[in-house]
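User: What would this chain look like folded?
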Amino acid sequence: MDNLITTFLTQLAAQTPLLIVCMAGLITALTHWQRCPRPAMLTLVGMAIFLVTIVARSFLTIYLFQLRRDHDWSITQYGWITSISTLVLIVIQAAALGLVLAAVFTGRKDHRLG
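Assistant: Here's the prediction, encoded as structure tokens.
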């Protein structure tokens, strides 16, 4: 059990730069909530989803490896399952970044109008 926790924390440690950016995004969104609520909300949701997927990917890596060992999966079975789970997480992360991108342009005035 201690080995699983250590491995999980090691996986998260490798993601430290992304975790810091996500936390900074969450804090920035909260501090700007009153001034620009819609972009702040989109940023908050996007960064929260991205943060959850980072933790989920670290957990899934360890969990799926444990399942492979416990259920005697072949390397092919393990490869398919990890590929599918990674694809799902990447699609979710892309959607989260889409929310952050939408936040950048939400509520902007068209300067060409005057």
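Residues 2-106 form one domain. If you want, I can go into more detail on any region.
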